[in-house]
Amino acid sequence: MHDEVILLFEQCLNGLQFGLLLFLLAAGLTLVFGIMDFVNLAHGSFYMLGAYFAATFAALTQSFVLSAVLALAATLAVGMAAEVIAIRKLYGRDHLDHVLGTFGLILFFNELVRLIWGPAGMNLALPPYLSTSIEILPDVYYPAYRLAVIMVALVVAFFLYIVVMRTRVGMLIRAGASNREMVSALGINIRLLYTFVFGVGAALAALAGLIQAPILTVQIGMGENILIVALVVIIIGGIGSIRGAFIAAIFVGLVDTVGRAFLPEFFRLVMTPAAASALAPALSSMLIYLLMAAVLVLRPQGFFPADGR
Amino acid sequence: MSAFFTVRSLVIGALLVFLALLPVYVATTGQFFPLTLFTRIIILALAATSLNLILGYGGMVSFGHAAYLGLGGYVVGILAKEGITSGFAQWPLVLAVCALFALVVGALCLRTRGVYFIMITLAFAQMIYYVAVGLDRYGGDDGLTIYRRSQFAGLIDLSGKVQFYYLCLALLLAAIWLVSRLVNSRFGMVIRGSRSNERRMRAIGFPVFRYQLTGFVIAGMMCGLAGALLANHTDFISPAAMHWTRSGDLIVMIVLGGIGSLFGPLIGAVMLLVLEEGLSRLTEYWQIVVGPLLLFVVVYAHGGIDGVLASLRHA
Q1: Nearest-by-Cβ selection for B288 from A39, A111, A225
Q2: Residues of chain A with pLDDT under 70
Q3: Which of A243, A304, B4, B84 has the greatest number of CB atoms lying within 10 Å of its CB?
Q4: ipTM
């Protein structure tokens, strides 16, 4: 097969993988926003905590899968605790208060991590069965880990869809989103439901974090920049919509990854190599924001605004 | 007009006298550190004052205001690197670049409201941050050292610590004066009105969007000026100046000091940075105190320090 085509194919897979990762982050954000009308900037902290927990448990248990499960449970617990202690008091306030309160939480979690794990980063090693490459097409090899990530994220997305759309808990969640008082008047413990949803959102972020941990270094503040990309995703998808978040996440993942890979080449066609190498890195990181600006001009409320908003 | 000598006006008066006399104290003790610290505080108070115009009075919660700090700094830094050190060229260009960026970003962001507005301003600031990281010629991630401060042809020497301090203080007071004139003018009434009830303002017949965009541009230019000062103060500019946590810091200053109060941003800047300075001497992990403190202020003390002062009867 032609080299360029193979490269494009690989970059598309990478983009898909990045997009699914963004979805895991964006799903929690958009779920919490859609249901509690709450803006959670500290979502990236759960991403970071997931990675730190996974790295710690991996050192203790020597098992990647077990440490991942433990890390998810631990972050779920931290998320629910944060909701009960702090977040709960901010529901019903204006969005500026949400932003500030969760900004305070970010400072707290970053510092807490530095206190517990120290300023140096950590590494999470892959088990041997995931650090190989698989021949996905004749003569085209792709890392097994990235394939596993794509698979896991798709399963989680499907599972989330089933839970929200087809189960009793999902029904309560959707009902709580449209009318909080009505649901609690019917005898449902809405506070508990909110705590649960917040915890699940935190666990989804932790899953994204621990997935990235073997690829990147586990470090303080690792969740902050990717959180802003997740915000771009939910702006494009329409805040509060899980379906919108899914489609927008894959779209953003593809545009960002493929753009970074091919924009420099493209620039070299139309301008001098020096100008191209100076401009391309700056411009390719602008791509997703330009995409967001374009979406805003066309549809200020995003592509799939959640019902009733 | 209940009384002129309220606790609030006394505190603000004392703070201003303190700021005006600080160089005298520094000159007698010979310790320059407080002057450096307070120059920085005043510059960031200027940035927070500009944000207060749109956030406090206009209700536009911009979470990307540090972008203008960075833009202002980078215009000064890039021009200095290319050999243009005249402040008469640098500073007007700072204002022009920031006005243009605010115009474009504002026109896009103001199509949206509420939480979308917060996130989108944040996203555009992050975009500029990454552009700065990508500028290899101008230091990229590592930033750009400014070897020569802006030159004003003998009018004022920015390398003189005391002169620079008084310049920053004068600009801050001018900005506070400008904001007070603006918010009490017809223009200010319109943006304040659209904060409380935008639909009604529109129904009365005001083109709210244009007023808000004008406010957004003015705030951007004012903050760009703060950026130019900051770059001159540190002789350095890097993408860190417009990291999104810096935008968060500016909002924190306003909320600590009191949203929509003229001297609130200054009080908040002094509070936050002095607190940081003090805590960082006590413990390396000072943010573990600041984070929950912020949460506490948000949950329990809504009007900020200025709100508390205003609620006190005269002592």
Answers
A1: A111
A2: 1, 306-309
A3: A304
A4: 0.85
Residue among A67, A247, A79 nearest A157 (CA)? A247
| Domain residue ranges in chain A | 3-126+152-298
Amino acid at B276: E
pLDDT in tens, B65-98: 999 999 999 999 999 999 898 999 999 999 999 9
- Closest in A93, A100, A104 to B292, CB measured: A104
Q: Which of A39, A111, A286 sits opposite B285 (nearest CB)?
A: A111
Q: Kindly report, residue by residue over A54-68, the tens digit of the pLDDT.
A: 999 999 998 999 999
Q: From chain B, pick out residues whose CB is under 8 angstroms from the CB of A101.
A: 294-295, 298-299
> Looking at chain A, which residue has its C-alpha nearest residue B56?
A96
Q: Domain limits of chain B?
A: 7-311
Q: Which member of B115, B131, B295 has the closest CB to residue A239?
A: B115
CB contact under 8 A, B294 and A111: no
B115 interaction partners in chain A (CB closer than 8 Å): 33, 39, 95, 239
A261 shares contact with chain B (CB less than 8 Å): no
Q: What are phi and psi of B154, to 5 degrees?
A: 80, -10
Q: Do the beta carbons of residue B35 and residue B165 sit within 8 Å?
A: yes
- Of B83, B252, B55, B75, nearest to A104 by C-alpha is B252
Give long-range contacts, CB 8 A cutoff, 24+ apart: B294-298. Answer: B294/A100, B294/A101, B294/A103, B294/A104, B294/A107, B294/B252, B295/A86, B295/A101, B295/A104, B295/A105, B295/A108, B297/B255, B297/B256, B298/A90, B298/A93, B298/A97, B298/A100, B298/A101, B298/A104, B298/B255
Q: Contact at 8 Å (CB) between A292 and B123? A: yes
Asked whether the beta carbons of residue B298 and residue A90 sit closer than 8 angstroms, the reply is: yes
Sign of CA dihedral A262, A263, A266, A267: negative
The Cα–Cα gap between B170 and B19 comes to: 11
Any B CB within 8 A of A99 CB: yes
